[in-house]
Inverse folding.
């Protein structure tokens, strides 16, 4: 926001959120910030499950939310005029609270133009729209069956994966088109997202066995996200500028994305570094969800 531009001008990479730690150092990007806090305060209200197999599934779902569900969010927010105006007006008004209506409207229009121009870069095109909308609906179905009986994905306390989903779903629950779909098809999920907005008093325990929602969301990773990551990596290694891959019967296309190659590398390295006993417990789940070939690939 403008009031912090001068203070954060030298911060790299300059992406939201930016958090200044007590030692004065600035940290950016939600996942690295969380992992740094975890390392500094080990065992204190951790959002990483104790079990290493569960912790990997937590990582996978978190990455799915950050790097794939965000495509559905971007699609819904900037594909229709009503959604464009709703989202952009909130963002710009929040960043520039002192503007009059005319100046605010000009910045809103500029912001919409900028965001719409970026949509093809991340695969949010009319061609890919049916796939991104189908993924959103399938994710809501997974969550709606889960939130009727359980509170969080890995037990009675929230995990990193819960917060990653929350970060996307909280926005989807407010943008007109996506919110209407969520309220129609997944009303309990709406309330679950609202509960996640304040878990400051929650302690809880980790569960030893993954609940069905974790398995179902992991299946989505095996059907959509991991095949995309693998294709994106192959395209980059081949020196290509675009990636094309068949996902759930749909030919998905977008520009190659180097950061998501790093995500894929992280997931494969994390899986490869697991102790043998954790992999033995995890592999049946990864096989069932069609994830294993992408993670065990060398």
């Amino acid at each position: 926001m403008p009031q912090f531009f001068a203070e954060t001008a030298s911060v790299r990479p300059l992406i939201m959120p930016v958090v200044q730690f007590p030692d004065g150092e600035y940290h950016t990007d939600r996942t690295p910030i969380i992992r740094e806090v975890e390392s500094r305060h080990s065992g204190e209200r951790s959002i990483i499950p104790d079990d290493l197999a569960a912790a990997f599934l937590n990582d996978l779902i978190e990455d799915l939310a950050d790097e794939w569900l965000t495509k559905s969010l971007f699609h819904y927010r900037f594909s229709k005029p009503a959604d464009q105006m709703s989202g952009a007006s909130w963002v710009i008004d929040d960043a520039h609270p002192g503007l009059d209506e005319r100046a605010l409207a000009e910045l809103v229009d500029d912001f919409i133009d900028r965001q719409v121009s970026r949509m093809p870069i991340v695969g949010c095109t009319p061609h890919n729209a049916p796939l991104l909308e189908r993924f959103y609906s399938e994710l809501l179905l997974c969550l709606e069956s889960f939130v009727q009986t359980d509170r969080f994905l890995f037990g009675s306390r929230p995990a990193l994966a819960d917060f990653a989903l929350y970060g996307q779903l909280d926005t989807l629950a407010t943008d007109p088109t996506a919110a209407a779909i969520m309220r129609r098809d997944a009303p309990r999920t709406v309330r679950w997202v609202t509960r996640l907005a304040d878990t400051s008093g929650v302690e809880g325990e980790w569960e030893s066995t993954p609940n069905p929602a974790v398995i179902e969301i992991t299946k989505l990773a095996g059907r959509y996200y991991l095949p995309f990551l693998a294709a994106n990596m192959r395209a980059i290694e081949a020196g290509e500028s675009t990636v094309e891959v068949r996902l759930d019967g749909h030919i998905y296309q977008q520009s190659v994305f180097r950061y998501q190659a790093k995500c894929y590398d992280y997931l494969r390295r994390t899986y490869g570094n697991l102790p043998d006993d954790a992999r033995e417990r995890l592999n049946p789940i990864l096989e069932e969800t069609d994830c294993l070939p992408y993670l065990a690939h060398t």
